[in-house]
Amino acid sequence: MSHDSTGSLHTVFVASSPVLAAWSERASVSSDIVALDEADTQGIIDVVARRRPTVVVLERRFLMTSKGAALVHRLRHDEELPRVEIRVLPTEHAVTLTTSHSPAVTSPAAVVSLAQPITGPVRRAVRVPMPEGVQAQVNGVPAALVDLSTLGAQVISARALRPNQSVRVQLADERGVVVRTRAGVAWAAFELPPGAPPRYRAGVEFQDTDPAAIEAFYERLASSAHGRRE
Any idea where the domains of the chain sit in the sequence? Predict the structure, then answer.
């Protein structure tokens, strides 16, 4: 399924080498799907241009990267490419595809059915939802990390956050690797959830962070989540 040939095609599945290898061991052979390594973005574009698929499925983790965001933008805006439906495979479903032995789950059709369509305009950088329980430090105070991109994050904090406020953000993973950055609060909203203390939900824009450091943070987070499920 990882090879390319000629003729029309329904699905291009773009994922990391470990995911493709594990899925290919379990999935049934089908001429309707081609699995391609995310590292070869030009190869992906070439296959889309030549084989004219209906759907392109991308791992959500890949969308966190600058390469993933750039690929989505090109697929949606390059007039020389055919129009395709772009779908995102959540991390938990990528794990399911690579660990299950059920034919219903490992079939080529499952890759599409487990993925979610991208709707609306393409962001400058795709924000990826974080697993429940992941926290950041905002000005030294713990805050729930709602989503994350190479450009910013959404957080929920018990301490007041206001638009245009400058803050210090710290991210730390299970291995103790820390990413620190200055950020500006782009927007903030006061919330009174039923049965819970008041809180502030805010979007912050990073000011001095290397995008590669954020990408590496999410890679480690996704790897830890995968390991806990095995």
Answer: 11-117, 128-229
